[in-house]
Design goal:
The complex is a heterodimer.
Chain A lengths: L3 E9 L5 E10 L4 E5 L6 H9 L6 E6 L2 E2 L10 E4 L11 H11 L4 H15 L14 H14 L4 E5 L7 H18 L2 E6 L2 H7 L2 E6 L2 E6 L1 H6 L4 H6 L6 E8 L2 E4 L2 E4 L2 H9 L7 E6 L4 E3 L9 E13 L3 E8 L7 H9 L11 E8 L9 E7 L4 E4 L26
Parallel strand pairs in A: 3-8, 3-9, 6-7, 7-8
Antiparallel strand pairs in A: 1-2, 1-4, 4-5, 9-10, 11-12, 11-14, 12-13, 14-20, 15-19, 16-17, 16-19, 17-18
Helix pairs in contact in A: 2-3, 2-4, 3-4
Chain B lengths: L2 H31 L19 H8 L1 H34 L7 H10 L4 H14 L5 H26 L2 H9 L4 H30 L2 H6 L8 H6 L11 H21 L1 H9 L6
Helix pairs in contact in B: 1-11, 2-11, 3-6, 3-8, 4-6, 6-8, 7-8, 8-12
The chains are: A alpha+beta, B mainly alpha.
Chain lengths: 409, 276
């Protein structure tokens, strides 16, 4: 058990490329911290620096209040679960799990006992004498977990441990990992590129982009108060819709119509870093849209007519896609996100396509003109230049702000 | 007949032709080796008089047994040295970042297929001057010129396929780099090392150019060279029966070895050809 502290950690490669830039992050004892971001954002590098598999170029890394920069991986008392599991193919499951203890010269009896204990937790008892090649993907994943658990280390490091599993198994193992981590109370750093995994699993989430921490906070905090366009676009599925807007008095003019800015947002907007700025990027969560005919209280929002171009039924709800005649919001951060999602390869449509999550009770049909309603309570506003939120204080901080953001007056 | 069965039977026919073409000479040699001296040239394929006397003859005459000893000894030493040195080199090529790491295996292959005949002449003169002519080292050293680069080429392909992360996993599990190598990497590399050993040994075993040029007596003459020196019964007869018997003795063990390890050998020859 130990806390892990990143103090101004930088990873610079020989060619000058900085994979991780001045990272500051405190992970408290027993916490499950998620490092999330698109590929190439430095999250794995950060994890590997904790493991001791990458040298730290600058800064200090502490595990349990002890600087470990120059310690070999074996002296750091950490266990790591690799993306491809990295099971030893020539050893049985039992030997795989007991390998670390064997190296530590733990008596054989105790090794057997601990391996059996871990196998029970992971439901691997009947597979102990099999070789990894004869196991299914999910079983291999559990062996990799078992190898970490057996050692009772001060921290678990997990590098996209579920990305090689199929979708259904991934959800199961996600729950499993959360359960094990909660019962063992071992400090864990979990790296993933999957925001759903991050949201469901983590005590706290650290979003990274291009080697820099964007925002660190509780899952709900990141969802409701993203500090910038990147976090806003990355967290949430389907992702947030972005539209260009102009602030005029107490409303913001969007391509779907003028949206009244709720008083609370107005106060934060005036107090926030934006001040009296007019041009903004508005962020609209898909679930803040609704079929207007289903909404009884239309007052704190805006209704508008649009044609549904594609309607996907999820059973519990609909995803309704509709086009809005406006310029595309162009921001480097959003392009990066689109590229990471592979959307950059899709044909560009004229205008912007928005997605709305509509209640399953709705009777809207694909291709029909319908009236939608947007709830402006959760409207997000971002600076067009910097991409920072105009509503969240301290949005300029790439550094960690442990304290919840409070508007300053 | 469907297209598929027609295709299959076509391939089968082609295969049978190829197998007959390649095995017929072996069969012929075996038959010749079983003929008596007087009937060797009678033109029949199947011997009229069967005999094993050719086999007993070659083992009675000292030249073949000493050649066999030389072949096995020189082949094993050259191969072992090459594989041990090449393991270290291949490990470095697979694991370390240094300029030219991609070029080295290709370069090694180029050296391995360099025509040996072109440096036999100079070597002959050099070996006579420094006293390596007709000695074991005198053959082991030139064998290394192709055994070592070939081993490096094959082994580096094998080492590349061992996931890097296994070593890291071992290090995180508390192993020193040496422990990680001995307990995790070495056992995984074993099949590759065995394969390389077999391939390289066979090539050493088959060498004729160096053996016949750089040796002259039973001190270092290997089997291929010795066979060519077999004396006839008189100076006007060819020792056809003896030569064939000797050829069978050295060929059959190799054929069995290749059959036993054919999967491995194919893997070794094609390693790295298709990205895993």
């Amino acid at each position: 058990m130990a806390e892990i502290e990143f103090d101004d950690i930088t990873k610079r490669y020989d060619d000058g490329y900085e994979a991780v830039k001045h990272m500051n992050l405190d992970i408290s004892d027993g916490e499950l911290m998620i490092l999330v971001g698109p590929s190439g954002c430095g999250k794995s590098t950060a994890l590997r620096m904790v493991a001791g598999l990458e040298d730290i170029s600058d800064g200090q890394l502490k595990i349990g209040n002890e600087v470990v920069n120059d310690k070999a991986p074996k002296d750091r008392d950490i266990a790591m679960v690799f993306q491809n599991y990295a099971l030893y193919p020539h050893m049985s499951v039992r030997d795989n799990m007991g390998f670390a203890l064997k190296l530590a010269k733990v008596p054989q009896e105790e090794i057997n006992r601990k391996v059996l204990e871990a196998a029970k937790i992971l439901d691997l008892e009947q597979h102990l004498d099999r070789k990894p090649a004869n196991l299914s993907g999910g079983q291999r994943q559990r062996v990799a977990m078992g190898r970490a658990i057996v050692r009772d280390p001060s921290a678990f490091l997990m590098d996209e441990p579920l990305s090689n599993l199929d979708a259904k198994l991934r959800v199961q193992m996600r729950t499993e990992i959360a359960r094990i981590q909660q019962s063992l109370k071992t400090t864990t750093i979990y790296v993933t590129h999957d925001q759903t995994e991050a949201m469901t699993l983590g005590d706290r989430i650290a979003v990274m982009r291009a080697g820099e921490l964007q925002q660190v906070g509780l899952p709900a905090e990141l969802y409701t108060q993203p500090k910038n366009l990147f976090v806003a676009g990355f967290i949430g599925s389907p992702s947030m819709n972005f539209l260009p807007g102009e602030v005029e008095g107490d409303s913001v003019r969007l391509p779907i119509g003028a949206v009244h800015i709720p008083d609370e947002l107005r106060r934060r907007l005036e107090a926030g870093p934006g001040g009296g700025r007019r041009g903004v990027i508005a962020g609209l969560r898909p679930e803040d849209f609704e079929d207007a005919s289903l909404v009884s209280e239309l007052s704190h929002g805006t209704s508008f007519k649009t044609k549904i171009s594609v309607l996907e039924s999820m059973g519990s709800e609909y995803y309704a896609y509709f086009d809005v005649a406006s310029e595309r919001v162009s921001a480097r951060e959003l392009e990066e996100l689109a590229q990471d999602a592979g959307a950059a390869d899709l044909p560009h449509t004229e205008g912007s396509q928005l997605v709305a999550r509509i209640d399953a009770a709705s009777r809207i049909r694909q291709g029909e003109e319908v009236e939608l309603w947007f709830n402006s309570q959760h409207l997000q506003l971002f600076d067009t230049e910097s991409g920072r939120s105009l509503l969240v204080d301290g949005a300029d901080a790439g550094r960690q702000a442990a304290a919840p953001s409070t508007p300053t007056s | 007949m469907s297209l598929r069965t027609r295709q299959t039977s076509g391939w089968s026919a082609a295969l049978i032709v190829i197998v007959i073409c390649s095995l017929f000479p072996v069969f012929w040699i075996v038959m010749l080796s079983l003929k008596t001296g007087a009937t060797v040239t009678d033109g029949s394929l199947i011997p009229h008089q069967w005999t094993l006397s050719n086999y007993s003859d070659i083992f009675k005459a000292g030249i073949f047994t000493s050649a066999l000893r030389n072949s096995i000894g020189i082949g094993l030493i050259a191969t072992a040295l090459a594989v041990i040195l090449a393991s270290a080199a291949a490990y470095a090529i697979a694991r370390l970042e240094f300029p030219g790491r991609r070029v080295i295996p290709v370069l090694a292959l180029g050296i391995a297929i360099f025509p040996q005949i072109s440096f036999v002449g100079p070597l002959y003169n050099l070996w006579r001057q420094i006293g390596l002519y007709d000695t074991w080292p005198g053959l082991i050293i030139p064998y290394m010129t192709f055994a070592l680069p070939l081993s490096i080429f094959i082994l580096s392909a094998f080492f590349r396929e061992i996931p890097w992360e296994l070593e890291q996993a071992a290090e995180v599990d508390g192993a020193t780099p040496f422990q990680a190598f001995m307990r995790v990497i070495a056992p995984l590399a074993m099949p590759g090392i065995v394969t390389t050993f077999i391939i390289v040994f066979i090539i050493c075993w088959n060498d004729f150019v160096f053996a016949t040029s750089l040796t002259s007596t039973t001190a270092a003459e290997t089997v291929p060279a010795a066979i060519s020196q077999f004396p006839g019964v008189s100076q006007f007869t060819l020792p056809i029966g003896d030569v064939c018997a000797a050829a069978v003795v050295v060929t059959v063990p190799m054929m069995i070895l290749v059959l036993l390890f054919q999967r491995r050998i194919v893997a070794g020859l094609t390693a790295g050809a298709v990205k895993g």
